[in-house]
Amino acid sequence: MDLDSLYQEIILDHYKNPHHKGLREPFEAEVHHVNPTCGDEVTLRVHLSEGVVQDVSYDALGCSISQAAASVMTDLVIGKPVDEAMRIHGEFLALMQGKGTVEPDEEVLEDGIAFAGVAKFPARVKCALLSWMAWKDATTRSLEASHG
Amino acid sequence: MDLDSLYQEIILDHYKNPHHKGLREPFEAEVHHVNPTCGDEVTLRVHLSEGVVQDVSYDALGCSISQAAASVMTDLVIGKPVDEAMRIHGEFLALMQGKGTVEPDEEVLEDGIAFAGVAKFPARVKCALLSWMAWKDATTRSLEASHG
Amino acid sequence: MSVTLPGLLPELEVIRKDFPILERTLADGRPLVYLDSANTSQKPQVVIDTMVDHLERHNANIARAMHQLGAEATEAYEGARDKVAAFVNAPSRNEVIFTKNATEALNLLARTIELGPGDNVVITEMEHHSNIVPWQLACERSGAELRWFGVTDDGHLDLSNADALVDEHTKVVAFTWVSNMLGTVNPVGDLSARARAVGAVSVIDASQAAPQLPVDVAATGCDFLVFTGHKTVGPTGIGVLWGREDLLNALPPFHGGGEMIETVTMQRSTYARAPHRFEAGTPPIVEAVGLGAALDYLAHIGMDAVHAHEQAITAYALEGLATVPGLSVLGPLDAAQRGGAISFELEGVHPHDVAQVLDSRGVAIRAGHHCAKPAHARFGVQSSSRMSSYLYTTPAEIDALVEALEYTRSYFKLG
Amino acid sequence: MSVTLPGLLPELEVIRKDFPILERTLADGRPLVYLDSANTSQKPQVVIDTMVDHLERHNANIARAMHQLGAEATEAYEGARDKVAAFVNAPSRNEVIFTKNATEALNLLARTIELGPGDNVVITEMEHHSNIVPWQLACERSGAELRWFGVTDDGHLDLSNADALVDEHTKVVAFTWVSNMLGTVNPVGDLSARARAVGAVSVIDASQAAPQLPVDVAATGCDFLVFTGHKTVGPTGIGVLWGREDLLNALPPFHGGGEMIETVTMQRSTYARAPHRFEAGTPPIVEAVGLGAALDYLAHIGMDAVHAHEQAITAYALEGLATVPGLSVLGPLDAAQRGGAISFELEGVHPHDVAQVLDSRGVAIRAGHHCAKPAHARFGVQSSSRMSSYLYTTPAEIDALVEALEYTRSYFKLG
Ligand SMILES: Cc1ncc(COP(=O)(O)O)c(C=O)c1O
Ligand SMILES: Cc1ncc(COP(=O)(O)O)c(C=O)c1O
């Protein structure tokens, strides 16, 4: 079992020094997601305006993979138009569900490519996706709220 | 499998010509017992007076074993003092639960000895005991009613 | 081994070799003639071997275990869910819930679908007790009314008063696909549509259908469907509830405990979505794995072929039974209109006695009420004898049955 | 294979040979070091073989089937009930009910014991979710109040306010015998007596105790006790509810369906007495048979010997874990006061990451909340790592764990 393919340096760096951590204002939606099997948790806020992800702030408890994924996710989506951020989400999801067969695109996923190895550890895929799922949920709610 | 040890002539005779069948008055207690696995049913009345089983009347639906057992049972208990009838019941029960190892006493069980072979067919023991259990239940209730 | 009938499984002798128990001999060295498959089916070697391999090499608890064995066990268990989803043609694997048996699946629904005074639940008079008692209890608890379709003299559902029975207050219409007593195949598509038309949910009890017919939940248009593992060549201890995902996620939890939660505090808990919401505690893991192997086995033979075999054997059995004097079959007399369980009466001999004499000849049938007392009451009988075939049944076994019935008549000195 | 400790099972190497999975190698050819037995235990060959023999030779439905196979299957199933009765020292075999798992047994009680506004139910903060959520749901339904014993800093029940908690309005006191997270062994006799004194019923969750300790329901003085088959070297899909016969027969039915009835009409039904009243539908037959073989296996080794082994291994493990820098054990630190599940934290490494690194070395432990979120919350942690041993665990496996923990520290570059 190739531990190093799971625990890439980039992942451990984000784990030790997570980006954009902490809950901030303003936000249109806040969600709380849990991984019921292991108990990892994330509280996440999204602030959208003019079709752009202005901020994503979060508070999370969990393993290195789930913490690093949250950090990388915020790097990837903050400042992006919502539809582009959704596309990035889709690409990350495909990578995670690919069982190690999908080749990640560094142009799109940046530090996210470090998670390619996680896809080979089925039990950890949920860890990597927790904050992404929370982000998608919060974003959908923000959009719903603004559209009425 | 020795079918003939199960279906003794005596049993088939009682099956075809059951004794004391039909519901009669007077009675102090009436019970309805069911064998839930196969659906055999008996409705049974007991008339006691002065410590003696004056009458046992019944209506029953069921297989040859259960019908014949009801018929033989009434022959054995009607006219007997209650405590003697209970002893006979005990003896019949012991025979049925003996898995074929108990030697029946013809003095006590009369035609009941024909059921010795039934004890070797575990699935049929319940058939042989259905009406006896109903009789015991009805008798207990009659006694309680008269004492209480 | 002479008779061949159109529709029989071509490799029947090969198939029989898959079932180790069929080689057994009983008392007096008699070969087993197993005609009690509607009660429980026998298991092919591959199901047993798959379970053994799981227990000997991959056993671990699922979901919660992060180690390699845990991953293997989880994959095996969740893989079985995929197999069930494919077997019933479910739109989503999340719609497949593993239960203990069909009975638990029906109780799950009867406990969680909201009912109140003024509502009604419609069942039928030919249901198995497991599709009657849960609804009786639910109606007692809630004050809802229990109604039912009657049965015609020829063993079909009496739909003449259907419009009056299923009305705007109906919340549930629950019915068997194939009757375990009468063999009747019910119009499940029509009944489901009728339920939908009044805004009620439909529940199909496919316990007898899933072993014998291709099941396609989408095609039936039903909302829920249940079946039980041990009748589909799988192990005991496992059943299936399929339900439409939106409906499942709208139901409250059934049992509380491990695995069905999202989060728990002493004050309150929140619950996972389907399927996990309804799978509290350690599920029947090796049983699900065994069921997966069983459904693979059936799919490999092909449910159309299984069905054709059943029809051929049933037709042959109906013919054979018709030759026995004093024997009358309960339920439809045309094989095309029925499943493979055939209940009958033999005049002058009580069903237990029939079963006993048959058993002495190695022929295993069921006698009693087959957990369908109301259907028996409908025909004025308290019990019956029932033969039921399956994909391993041969025409020669039907001959053995008929012969044993003749012997029964002579043993009890009937004409 | 050098260390020998007082109390270790003398024939440990022979016992290990009974468990085929222990010969498995994992990725990179590493031998399996299975330290997740509190999650589920491994199965000895004799349990697997007994199940196979049942499926290959004696498979039939029970009770209802009158043929020879039916008699054999019924005898095997009811024989397992006798074995369970003997294992827990039950006064009567009728007091033993087979369920799907411990969770179903606890839900059965929470659904059938009558509760109302003004009543209360007392549990503890160290319960498994399966002994919390059913009571939360029951209290929500009935308006009863849920109360709980807290946990002290050293992982024992806080009994200081026991007189206030368990009062004349208490209907149920439900508690675990051995905590699956903290390992704490609770004073089940005292708690049962406390319940009885106020007229409440006591419910012992023996899921972690039954694998490890001699269980004697009469000696504990409790009213109900549950455990689960897969933790006592038996299969999944089977659990046990033991209850006092008079109490069981006073409870209403749980699930409705086949086998639990006395008689059924469309209008109403009446119900059988315990145990059948609570065993609706085809029960887990081969699973009960497997559990019977499992309990025979444990009885053959002797539960006192199993317990002594557990104590020896646990003491050795506590010593070993104490040598790992930054590691802190949750729960009692004295082996004599605890069971064999040891949860711990390793400073600077999240439990999932601990489990992952250990798994790469073949050491299987559990990480997460172990279905005991409130107990974790009590200690201000969200999850932990847990090693749990059983009768096949060797001191060398504990050494491998400790070594793998050292490796984990170095992998994550901790001092
Ligand atoms: C203390 C305790 N109670 C209850 C359970 C539930 O057992 P099961 O999941 O087999 O129902 C477990 C194990 O998971 C346990 O450790
Ligand atoms: C039509 C029907 N429904 C429900 C059941 C109940 O199945 P189980 O006993 O496996 O729960 C059966 C079989 O016993 C059946 O034939």
Could you explain the architecture of this structure?
Chain A is of the alpha+beta class. Helices cover 48% and strands 17% of the residues of chain A. Chain A has a three-stranded antiparallel beta sheet with strand order 1-2-3, with helices on one face. In chain A, helix 4 packs antiparallel against helix 6. Chain A is globular. Chain A starts with a helix and ends with a helix. Chain C is an alpha/beta fold and 415 residues long. Chain C has two domains: 139 residues, Aspartate Aminotransferase, domain 1 (Alpha-Beta Complex), CATH 3.90.1150.10; 253 residues, Type I PLP-dependent aspartate aminotransferase-like (Major domain) (Aspartate Aminotransferase, domain 2, 3-Layer(aba) Sandwich). Chain C has 14 helices and 15 strands. In chain C, the strands form four sheets. A seven-stranded mixed beta sheet of chain C has the order 2-8-7-6-5-3-4, sandwiched between helices. In chain C, strand 3, helix 5 and strand 4 form a beta-alpha-beta unit. Chain C starts with 11 loop residues before the first helix and ends with a helix. The model of chain C has no long low-confidence stretch (mean pLDDT 96). At the A-C interface, helix 6 of A face helix 3 and strand 9 of C. One pyridoxal-5'-phosphate sits at the interface of chains D and C.
Percent strand of chain A equals: 15-25%
> Beta-strand percentage of chain C?
15-25%
Taking all Cα atoms into account, the compactness measure Rg of chain C is: 22 Å
The helical percent of chain A reads 40-55%
Which outline of chain C best applies? globular
Tell me the quaternary state: heterotetramer
The CATH homologous superfamily of the largest domain in chain C is termed Type I PLP-dependent aspartate aminotransferase-like (Major domain)
The N- and C-terminal alpha carbons of chain C lie at a distance of 30 Å
C-alpha geometry of chain A: globular
Largest interface, with counts of residues having CB < 8 Å to the other chain, equals: C-D, 94 and 96 residues
Beta strand count of chain C: 15
Number of helices of chain A: 6
Task: Count the beta strands of chain A.
Answer: 3
**Helix-residue proportion of chain C:** 25-40%
**Poorly predicted tracts of residues of chain A:** none
What name does CATH use for the topology of the largest domain in chain C?
Aspartate Aminotransferase, domain 2
Q: For the record, give the distance between the C-alpha atoms at the N and C termini of chain A, rounded to a whole number.
A: 50 Å
Report the structural category of chain C: alpha/beta
